[in-house]
Design brief:
alpha+beta; globular
Length: 85
């Protein structure tokens, strides 16, 4: 288990720790620990996420786990940490 997310040891390729850009307003960023895939863009590296983040546009670099399917059928990414904190 990583941050409340259960990982399947037999299928580690399904849910992975990744770097991403997350579109999130400050109020959402403080409250939410999971984000739908439509506000997450997976990138190749931590450096790329830091380089491309733009807080003025509510675009933040993060380390996330995912994607994981919710009970409602949505694909979600779970926040591990914000890169700028």
């Amino acid at each position: 288990m990583k941050g409340g997310i259960f990982l399947d040891a037999e299928a580690p390729h399904l849910v992975q720790q990744r770097f991403a850009l997350v579109q999130a307003a400050p109020s959402v960023r403080r409250k939410r620990q999971r984000f739908p895939e439509n506000v997450v863009e997976v990138v190749d590296s931590e450096e790329e996420a830091l380089r491309r983040q733009d807080p003025a546009q509510d675009l933040h670099g993060a380390e996330v786990m995912g994607p994981s399917r919710s009970s409602e059928g949505f694909r979600l990414y779970y926040l591990v940490r914000w890169l700028s904190e």
